[in-house]
Write a structure and sequence with these properties.
mainly alpha; 14 helices; transport; membrane; MetI-like_sf
């Protein structure tokens, strides 16, 4: 009986499976193929053009001895952790406020979401002006009488990454808010009524009931934020171009400069491979715990 059912299962939704063949083929050839090609050539001494002169781990040894790469990894770690935490917290907080059925909700939601419609270049240039000490926030506050006020993160090597973070949070929090708001609106109203009848404070209802129920929503938000963190580039270029000095370098910028400016494909491929490994280190354990646990539960 089991063998008889297998052909039927294979023929089920046949049209959809046939229609998906071009997409699957494209993914295999373009994404998987290019990924393998990049990893292979990261072990070569390719310069302006790809070569097959293998040099073992030389490119990786050189990569991890380069101060610019080490600073970019440190910046990405700071930017990534802060961006994840702040985007989730701010987005969820704004969503809870809008979920109270306030007046002019549509207008407020549109205003908060509007920065996400801007490109990172526009956002970066805008915040470059806002954080400029000569005519930005510092200038305005000092004109009001606080002459000793200092706020110039983009010109301070120790905190420049936080200046970039401000712009990223400003642009991305609106999208997270909308995602969280959709999740909150999907919560059955009977749950809220039952919590009120039982005398459970609203904050406890959110923490112990609502947030666990919104786990898929949080996962979606985390995936979107993580994707933006790994590929952050244009925001950094628009605001600081990696400066002051190399204080705000990020891995994506290192890869692009190695490839096009320094014409060192081998080094760029090695850096790209390390970025891929970083993503896999994060995603593989999560996928195993998420989907492996569900299979074991069945």
């Amino acid at each position: 009986m089991a063998d008889a059912k297998r052909p039927n299962q294979l023929l089920r939704n046949l049209n959809a499976k046939v229609a998906a063949i071009p997409m699957v083929a494209t993914a295999l050839v373009v994404f998987v193929g290019c990924t393998i090609w990049t990893i292979v050539h990261s072990f070569t001494k390719s310069k302006l053009l790809p070569k097959t002169d293998f040099v073992g781990l030389d490119q990786y040894e050189r990569l991890w001895k380069t101060n610019k790469w080490l600073i970019s990894i440190e910046n990405l770690a700071i930017y990534g952790i802060c961006s994840l935490v702040l985007s989730i917290c701010i987005g969820f907080f704004l969503a809870t406020l809008l979920d109270q059925k306030i007046r002019f909700e549509n207008t407020i939601r549109t205003i908060i979401l509007y920065p996400f419609a801007l490109s990172f270049v526009v956002t970066g240039l805008t915040w470059q002006w806002i954080l400029n000490p000569d005519f930005g926030v510092q200038k305005i506050v000092r004109s009001l009488g606080w002459e000793s006020f200092a706020f110039d993160p983009l010109y301070n090597q120790d905190i420049v990454i936080y200046g970039i973070l401000i712009a990223a949070i400003w642009q991305g929090s609106g999208l997270i808010m909308v995602i969280m708001l959709a999740g909150l609106r999907g919560i059955d109203q009977e749950i809220w009524k039952a919590a009120r009848v039982d005398g459970i404070p609203k904050w406890k209802t959110y923490i112990f009931i609502v947030i666990p129920m919104m786990r898929p929503v949080f996962v979606t938000a985390l995936v979107l934020i993580t994707a933006g963190i790994v590929k952050v580039y244009d925001l950094v270029v628009a605001q600081t171009n990696g400066g002051p000095g190399i204080a705000s370098e990020v891995p994506a910028k290192y890869v692009i400069e190695s490839m096009f400016k320094n014409q060192n494909l081998g080094q760029a491929f090695a850096a790209s491979t390390m970025m891929l490994v970083t993503v896999l280190i994060i995603l593989v354990p999560y996928a195993y715990l998420e989907y492996g646990g569900k299979r074991r539960a069945k």
